[in-house]
Each structure stands twice: as structure tokens, then as C-alpha cells.
Design a protein that fits this description.
Distance between the termini: 71 Å
Helix content: 40-55%
Oligomer: single chain
Largest sheet: 3 strands, antiparallel
Length: about 325
């Protein structure tokens, strides 16, 4: 006989908090020298040294994991062993071996080029021959999450159930702050000021390593307060010790590995169950940025809120279709 799923009950009353009328039918430093082999510095040794440098510099675990995965795959496919034997042909051979979209190829290529660039800066490669290698991809407009879709999802979730309360809170955090899902998963009670309604996030959690303060509204404050109280009860019952804002029913972090985030999986299930679109971490982040733009925020403020180090990244991130550009320009005629 299968065990019935345990359901944790939330005592707070959230009746009508997200009451909406659905608009339609509901059916993403220090240099450490590597040892050289007789035949030159091996790629794997260089990778170990580069990842150690990244760790010392405080780079994100996920970024380091991507370096390891893609560089080791490159070595496996091409059979190349040392840095000095690498040529452009090796890179093209590696790209040709992939049965994936050009967009995915481009993402992996950027990671490999970043690794090779670090090797170049360390003095292990004489020239940066990989600079001109590229993958041509189309750039369709990526829509952000619409506020109506977000509110519809929140109205459908049962906020008296702990897991759905946690997921609803995470969705609203991403939509109101633009934080990445992995950053949200690592938020601690010390990062939230419920009285001032501000997230005070230290640089260690952010990709650009800069501290940032992000405000939120009264609705999110209520959800956070309720979730934090439920977390305390769960940790006491399960005898776990942490101060994460987002935890499992067993009191552990929702971030199992740098690429395995429970909340991301839950959002995918909700989109399928309720027939919603663009309810995923990256769409929520884009929705946050687009909403700021629509309300008159300038690109510099949006860039700072998103944690981008370059305005050019933000302008690409806010990719607008032709009709939106025309509408915006018409205001200044």
C-alpha cells in the first residue's frame, strides 16, 4: 500500500489575497600555478587550476560546474590532451559533434572560450586563437512573465499547504526583485528586513558580487512572514539547523546541487497543470525588468537591479519587438 503524501497545514488566512479573474481558459584573483607535464600543460591540469582560481575569487558553484562539464566534454570529444596542441579545428570538431540547437552550442562555446581566455591570461597560451570562433543563432524576442499570469498562478495555489505557500512566495520574490532562482534558493532570514520591506543581499550570493538592496510590497511581506514562521516549526520538528527562507518539508535547502533546484521543477509542473506560459525563473526575471521599463525606470536603474555589470547586457536582456520600439519612439516626437 502506498503511503499518503504528508501535507503540512499553514494556519494563516490568505483568503482573497490573490483573487483574480483569469483572462483566458486554463487547461533559466589570485593566480595558482599549474604543474607542467613533460609534453606541456595538460588541459585537465589547467582546468583544475582555473577552477581553484575561480573558487578563491568567490565565483558561483554553478559557473564552476559548467566549466568542468563543458571543458571535460571538449577533451573527451577531441582527444586533445595539452593546451599547446589546441587549434581552431579542435573547437569546430567539438561543435560539430553536438546534436543540439545552435543556441545551446553558443552557450557551451562561451564557456569553453572563457576557460581558454583564463589560460591565456595566466600565460599558458601564447595567442587567443579562439576569439573569432562563433555560432550564428537567431535572436527571437523572449517574453517575460506577465503580471496577469503570475497573479493567476498565485490565485490557484493553496496557501494553507506549506509547499504551495513556499512556491507562491518564491514566485513573487523572483517577480518583484528579478533575483535568479539559485540566489532565491540561498536566501536566509538575515537577508530580509520585514519591517522596512527590503532584501539586503550580500555580494556572495550574486553573480557580479555586488551587494544590493531590493524592496518588496506588503503582499510579499505577509507571505514571507508566514513562511518564516512555518519554517521554524518544521526545523524544530525535523531537528534541522539552517536559516534558509526556502526549505523542503524535511527542513533542508531546496537547492540540492548547483543545477538541481526543487522550486524550478515545481514551476514547470504548475505551467503544465494550469496551462500557463512563461512561469519559469528566467521569464519571471525578464518580467520584473520589463515591468520596471513599462513604469518608467531607466535602463541604468534596471541594470543595477538585475546585477548586470554592463548596460549592453541589459539592453539585450530587454529585447523589444519592432512594435514596442515604434511605440516608445512615438512618445518623443
Amino acid at each position: 500500500m502506498s503511503k499518503k503524501r504528508e501535507s503540512l497545514i499553514v494556519t494563516e488566512d490568505f483568503t482573497d489575497l490573490f483573487a483574480v479573474t483569469p483572462s483566458r481558459d486554463l487547461n533559466e584573483g589570485k593566480i595558482i600555478q599549474a604543474e607542467e607535464t613533460v609534453d606541456g600543460l595538460s588541459i585537465t591540469d589547467a582546468l583544475k587550476s582555473v577552477t581553484r582560481q575561480m573558487e578563491v575569487s568567490g565565483m558561483r558553484e554553478r559557473t564552476i560546474s559548467d566549466y568542468n562539464r563543458h571543458v571535460l566534454h571538449f577533451v573527451k570529444v577531441t582527444g586533445a590532451q595539452t593546451l599547446e596542441e589546441l587549434t581552431v579545428e579542435h573547437i569546430y570538431e567539438w561543435l560539430a559533434s553536438m546534436e543540439v540547437s545552435n543556441q545551446t552550442k553558443l552557450t557551451r562555446l562561451k564557456c569553453l572560450k572563457a576557460f581558454l581566455t583564463r589560460c591565456f591570461h595566466n600565460g599558458w597560451l601564447p595567442v587567443n586563437f579562439w576569439r573569432q570562433v562563433n555560432v550564428r543563432v537567431s535572436t527571437p524576442v523572449k517574453e517575460g512573465a506577465a503580471e496577469q499570469e503570475v497573479m493567476t498562478l498565485l490565485s490557484l495555489l493553496d496557501l494553507t499547504d506549506f509547499v504551495q505557500l513556499r512556491d507562491a512566495t518564491a514566485v513573487l520574490v523572483m517577480f518583484q526583485t528579478g533575483l535568479r532562482s539559485n540566489t532565491v534558493a540561498q536566501l536566509r532570514s538575515s537577508h530580509v528586513d520585514l519591517k522596512e520591506k527590503i532584501f539586503k543581499i550580500d555580494g556572495g550570493l550574486l553573480k557580479n558580487h555586488d551587494q544590493i538592496f531590493l524592496p518588496f510590497d506588503e503582499t510579499l511581506a505577509r507571505l514571507l512572514a508566514a513562511l518564516i514562521r512555518q519554517n521554524e516549526s518544521i526545523r524544530k520538528e525535523k531537528r534541522t539547523r539552517n536559516d534558509f527562507i526556502f526549505i523542503t518539508q524535511h527542513g533542508n535547502s531546496v537547492l540540492r546541487t548547483p543545477t538541481n533546484n526543487i522550486i524550478q521543477k515545481r514551476l514547470r509542473n504548475y505551467t503544465k497543470t494550469y496551462g500557463l506560459k512563461n512561469i519559469n525563473p528566467h521569464a519571471l526575471r525578464r518580467g520584473f525588468a520589463k515591468r520596471l521599463l513599462d513604469r518608467g525606470a531607466n535602463v541604468a536603474v534596471i541594470s543595477k537591479a538585475l546585477g548586470h555589470s554592463d548596460l549592453a547586457v541589459t539592453t539585450r536582456y530587454l529585447h523589444l519587438d519592432k512594435e514596442e520600439v515604434v511605440g516608445s519612439l512615438r512618445k518623443y516626437l
